# Entry
Amino acid sequence: MRWLYFLFLQILLVALTGAVFYIHKEHVVVIKKPPASLAQWYRPENKRQVWLHNMFKLRREMQAVRFYSDNGDAKHLGKWVARLSEHYLKIGKMVPEWSNKLDRDAIANLIKSSENNRYQEISRALDDLAESCNSCHADYRAVTALIYRAADFSSLEIEPSLLFDSHMEQLAKQVNQIKIASEDGMKDIALSSLDELKKGINVLGNICSDCHQKEKRIYPDDKIDKTVESLEESLKTGTPKQQGQDLGRLAVLACARCHGTHRIAFDAGKLLSDRQGWLELMKH
# Structure
């Protein structure tokens, strides 16, 4: 009889877990994380972004196979079917955990149909392959991009004693100090805070250039420089409205524009990468 009690407890545990998730369904998002073995095909572990290149090849090869199949071009069809088969099956070798997700029957049907010039069957096999790709993309593409393709700022240092996060926090404080001081009529404090902000922006630009190497000067650009000049003038002689407009424009150009690209992706990727303990999970 003990096994009946054990089975009952197991069923009860599953039911309770399901009930908790159902009760909190409006607050729970289920995300599948890709296997750890995928990391070896992305930077920094791999300099060539091999996984991405394999995906690009597959997309191009599927397009070529459909094109030559639709046009009845058997001469070129075989070449592209062979490439498509090679790079599709390579997925299972690169990430063994995903080997069982591959539609090997569709690949076999594709090869056989191309050898016999059965073009309608080729189209169906391609549809099956596309469905196989899309089902995996739905689970993993966005998450993988956040984890492996978002810029990682966690280890950056502005200087040996100043971490990147601390520098960004100082910039935010300086922007707010300008607003506070200008609103309360403290011109000298507003101008000195702007001077510190300018220095901090220029220092940050040196870090940006480490990644944006092709551009001569990605940050701060001419628009930011001109806005800083306009803000400095309005803090000296302008109206509170002009000061607020200039500071708001500067915040968009120097802060929000880059945050929209980098900060959202970095924060989301960090959230997915960090392992949470049981205590943190229980809080949620």
In short: The mean pLDDT is 87. Residues 147 and 273 are 7 Å apart (CA to CA).
